[in-house]
Amino acid sequence: MELPCVRAARENGETVRAALAEHELVDRDHEITVVDGSIFIPVTDSEAVPDEYAVVTHDAPVRETQEMPADILGFEPTYERLGDVVLVDEDDPERAERIAAAVMESALPVETVLNRASKVTGEFRTREWDHLAGGSTETVHREYGCEFALDIAEVYFSPRLATERHRVTEKIAADERVVDMFAGVGPFAIPAAKRGAAVVAVDLNPVAVDYLRENARRNDVAERVTAIEGDVRTVAEEYEGWADRLVMNLPHSADEFLDAAVRLASDDCLLHYYDIQHESDPYGPGERAIRAAAEEYEVTVETRQSVRSYAPHELNVCLDVRLRG
Description:
The chain is of the alpha/beta class.
């Protein structure tokens, strides 16, 4: 049956499917199909599909055999896929257990189901998890053609930010010098290096840096990624004036590192500054902090990007800011 479908590269299929599912746009009555390296995801409302996705007409057979969690439960559960680990966020333990059982019974290729048991805390930005099914918290996550090995119990990683990471890294040129100031396991650094950039990736978490180095090897970019375990404020002394692009993905406290960012910046540097602020003024505090820290630069805000809703009346946002000396 010819139906509206979102077309994407096969390797990006799960990332795109998850994004559409978050908007409740996936047509679960019809099959997702793959043809010649492209994946076709049937959608319920083509007009509601975000502009970044290509909507085409494609033959989507009626789904007959594979049961998904929603088929078993009778409602659409909210969850995230991270490799073969499924992450849920349920306050009701009984509901969480029901979702986990349905996920494991379904056709999803899943080994472990975890429920969030705490907020992100500490200098390593990790959280506690309740094991609902399976055991291992280590997995390999695939995103826009890259592979990321990680242990979600030991490092910070959010699959929800895949689209935002892709937005940023797609702009990177082969001759750029990039500093990822809070790199984690490399979801910004690795794609940047795959585009040919020289990348310095810094993180305090030794486990994250170990995975970062493994992921650089896994994605064949080890020669372009310098992974450093430590405080980026110290690293800035060695790489002063080096960066053409800076990634500051540390919402809530990125402003504390703006002096280091200014020190790292070259005479023409693009800064991606992530922040979480009240919806009444989501960009103002970050912009004011950047201008105050970069007084010797001409500061131009090129993009104000809302990344996602973080909490009631709070937004996770990004400011793309050009610094010219």
